[in-house]
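From the pipeline queue, job 12 of 40. The input is one protein chain; the requested action is below.

Action: predict structure.
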Amino acid sequence: MPKIACAQYDIGFLETWANFEAKTRHWVKQAADNKADILLFPEYASMELASLFPKAIYASLSGQLDALQSLLPDYLNLFKALAAEHRVYIQAGTFPVKHDNGEFRNHAYFFTPQGDADYQEKLTMTRFENEQWHISRGLEIKLFDTVFGKVAINICYDSEFPHYARQQAERGATLILVPSCTDTEAGYYRVRIGCQARALENQCYVAQASLVGDADWSEAVDVNRGASAVYTPVDRAFPNNGILAIGEYNQVQWVYAELDMAAVDTVRREGQVFNYRDWPKQFDCQ
């Protein structure tokens, strides 16, 4: 059974790449030493890299996005190396990436023990991302192959829309990773409720990682609220409340859980209810 580690990760003012690398290496090593196979970081965890630039840049919503592009190659190389070194899968949170047409899109990179990397783009943007930060949506839904089965990613707000996860589940995903960044308790619960609903509907695991703590220096991620968790179907062989593991609200920590991937197939086939199988029936009604 794979063990997943979901980070309740704090934004720091790091000032140098060496500090970022040391922090990242510490987090990854800690999870790997605890025998985690899959590591999940929160949405926009990479925004602490903006602290490497002068205040005129990190205090500007648009300026920090442009400046971050110079660090993307080193960011990718670091996580590729760490995934290969520790023989783990890492979903590194998200990084806003500038495309050739000038648009920024929110990439959730997935790194493998073989040193490969791919990404899922965020599909639905919040008002802040769209209206103030001017980050554009992606359109492609991807799956990622692992030795534990197919894994999918819903980036924060995407978890609140059932058809993304449904398409992923129908294509074989039994684990959906949700890197999240929310600045209010209500925002956290919106994503949490979405995660639990997606686990219920698709009878699969959904893991959430939350950005936590305050970063007064950053206009983009100045306030962060949440708790990381692993949610499950609500059926036999799973917790009665659908919560396999959950962290202490807004505290910096890893949250660990072991995933019985075979139990997903079993509950879809032999559960007390058949949410996954019965999904199409809702469209019969007029």
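Job complete. The two ends are 43 Å apart (CA to CA).
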